[in-house]
Structures are given as structure tokens and as C-alpha cells.
Amino acid sequence: MKYKKTALWIFLAAGSVGLVFIFGAVPGKSVVPPQAEIVQPAPEQTGQKPELPQQEPESAEPESGPAAPAPEMASAHFEMAEYRCDCAGLCDGWPARMNPVLLERIEALREYYGLPVVITSGVRCEGRNTEVGGVAWSFHKRGDAADLYCPGVAVGDLAQTAKDLGMNVLPYYASGYIHVEV
Questions:
Q1: Residues 84, 85, 90, CA angle at the centre, nearest 5°?
Q2: pLDDT tens digits for 43-68?
Q3: What's the rounded Cα separation, in Å, for the pair 144 and 134?
Q4: CATH of domain 80-181
């Protein structure tokens, strides 16, 4: 019997907490709606001019501190950082510059679909290329290749469009991405 009473009290306490959580009020106390929810009489009914909401003065500096510098853009939709070598400190991130022709064609691919294109690998250093099992003559090491995918677009369709835009393509159907190069 002792355990049943304890269980009953726990159940009632939990129910009360649940009511407070759901309704935001303690039973037996009145709830005053926030100021914005109180219905004010229309100005024409009271003969007064309507009050405008007070605006806080704009500060000269944003609250979060100075703005971060704008990222270096490779094209309209891609930051250079998206093409950067993703090794764990084996290089400075740029063992080679990305080929501008490749950048233009990947941008054209993105514009064709009107959807984000995600670059999973751009330029690679020798160490990163070895880590991922890349071939010794990899175009990634020269900045002439990228691996990418487009959410919502089938690998075969993406590969065909990339070919039509003048890129050499290796589709990786099982992995869901394509390798493009110029």
C-alpha cells in the first residue's frame, strides 16, 4: 500500500508539472497574456492616435563583434575553400591552384540544375592523394579535377550533364558521386 501511495503522488506531481509545461500556468493562478496579446480598443473608439511600437536605436557596431571577412569566391556559388586540400596538415591546403576552366564548368553545372553541388574533394597534396587511394597521376594533384555530387540528381544524369559541359567524367554510382576533370 505504501508503494501505491508513493506512485500516486509521483503521478500527480508529474501531471502538475506537465500542466505547467503545456499551459504555462500553475493551476489556480490566473494567467495574464503577454502585452502584445492584450486586445486594445481601436483608436477611433477612444479618440486617441494609435501608438507605434517603440524601436530600439541601432547601434554603430553589431552585437556579435566585427564582421568576418568575406570568403574568397572561386565563382558565383563556390568558395575557394570548397576546393582546398582536406588533408590533416600535410600541406598548406593549396599544393596547386584550381584550374579556372574547371571552376567555370563546375559553376555551369550548378547553374544548369539550380541546386547546390557539393564538392567532396578538390585539389589534393601527395599525402592526401595517397590516403584516399588516388592514382599517382591524379588530376587532383594539379588542380584539374574535383569529386562532387548534387543532392536530388542521379549520378548518371549528373555525369551526362558534366560531359555535355565539356568535362571528362568518371561516375561512381555505388558511392553516389562523380569525378570531373579537364
A1: 140
A2: 555 555 545 456 555 555 556 678 88
A3: 14
A4: 3.30.1380.10
